[in-house]
Amino acid sequence: GRADAARAAGEPELGLRAAEHALALRPEDGRALALRAELAQEVTRARARESLERARVALQDFRAQSARALALESEVLPLRQAVTSRAMSAAESARLVELDGELADLGRTLEGRFAEVLEALERARGLDPDDAAAEQVLAELYLERWRAALAAQDARGERHYRALVESHDRAGRHAGELGT
Asked: How far apart are CA 68 and CA 102, in angstroms?
């Protein structure tokens, strides 16, 4: 019927509604019950894939913003060192204040993106706990944090995020970079 047609057309949500309508008319219809269960699983998997894709997009933005933060840090570092080692010009002082403000804003943006990735992954994992792709994206997110800790020479952060990467990187894709 309509549920099969919707399923064939790649519209599992429409198919699910059609199967539920058929069951409302004939609650004892075993075929409609089985079809509804199958379509419900397809809808759930589709929602998990959508959440996973949102996580991947947010992760790409997180990576781009992380790279921007690293570039700003390298620009700020000599100015911060100059504060205690020599007289700074008014332009240098103004630039330092400007860059510190940008870094603070960027830090808040990064935290928001990090949370966005985590939320999308939690939704994906909740909908489809057997999908290893969500674990891999989570490993990649923690890898970005590990890289930031490495760049900042934050030994505790390095250890913490290395352990998180290793626990979610079941395939060992990042073992070489981590040096494990």
From this structure: 10
